[in-house]
Amino acid sequence: MAKTLLTLIFSASLALIATAQERDSICDATIDPAFELALFINPILAATGGADVVQCPDGSYFVAIGVTSIQGSDAKEQMRQLKVGRMQAIKAIAEFIQPSKIDMQTTLHETTEVITQSGKKSGNQTKELTESTRTTIEGMITAPPQVGVWKSKDRQLFFYAVGKKLTH
Q: Which one, of 54, 58, 52, lies nearest residue 8 by Cα?
């Protein structure tokens, strides 16, 4: 029992240190206090976005973080950040549940034209390379509620987090 309690205290201490370090690398944060540890316990997820189930001392949490660039500071841009950030978080949930299907097609079309006029030959050669990529994700998702928004310290990226507590 004492060993389990000591392990839990050690884990909680490490998580709080990681959370404090992550909080130093963000600004303009509005985060649900119940999710602060869950959002920053995985520094890679917090810095790059995505979705994962994270283990905290008080239980398991599912979190998804969407990221978008900041392109200004007016009200219209702030609304865009919220919308795009939310869609990126939902996309991360969909990819977590079922990976994306990526279709790629490459086509090379070559044309050579030789013209003979008054005994002189001239030519024209054309090459056209066409590449297309399509990403498809299918599924019905009920997105968890927003649990936090923040910006990177350099104010270049906006983060939008959704989450749900899974276990106690």
A: 58
